[in-house]
């Protein structure tokens, strides 16, 4: 890592003062009027205003592992930023800007070798992976690739087509994806899970596909139509699926929230109502992360969900999986207009 100079706790360009309050919900106001961000701690409800240089002249992609990929909008130089410490790890420059709509993940297999790697065998490279939502393509980069590292594009054609009556078919893309022990799992279809693996002896990063059948959970209802939003995430080395179920075609009212852990022996999603001292954090772009609850002042066994479909409020929802209860929370003061949807900064994942 290349550390930045330590910033004072009251420095408006540092998140040091809010380090104990992670996870944070960030409201970015863009260039007007002062390149500022309003930051909400969901643990204690406190609000702070910052002018973070990392969010000025950079495209920033948050990851479930806590690191943020920064891409200089002018030079396309890249780095991984640790918001808690200010440290940055340089990465190769991109040859074009990142996709307008995408998801970013980090898989650290060096400091936390996967269980499936035999003793004495080198683990696959730690990777940064960007899933392009606009076309079926992945962008890959080795974190510790040295002078030879570069961003590699990997198109794919295994997601099929999205067909809407009256419109030309378009290629489906990977949307729900999580990194678990060096493997990138995604929902290939309603009943199929895909797994992407990078092997250590590949001359440059390349993800190989394996699939297995695992029916996607449903809810019992007489409603003629159920819409499901799905989120994949890693927690304590396990693969979880969180489903938000909506009745009808609207997305205003969540009918039910379900959490499921993958039983790889049975190849099925098993519903769980007790996730222990953990909280799941969900946001726009299918962002999903796990966070120790007590350590960070969160309600254990809950799902924190921040996504305003209508963009007319800054609310977030808290669903208690064990009790089946829910509540809606919001900032205690008005939030100025935003340049993007609110996004999460979560604690750094162990091993990253």
Automatic annotation (TrEMBL):
Residue span, KIB1-4 beta-propeller domain: 40-320
> Superkingdom of this entry's organism?
Eukaryota
Q: Name one Pfam family in it.
A: Beta-prop_KIB1-4
Which InterPro entries does the record associate with it? Answer: KIB1-4_b-propeller (IPR005174)
- What is this protein identified as? KIB1-4 beta-propeller domain-containing protein
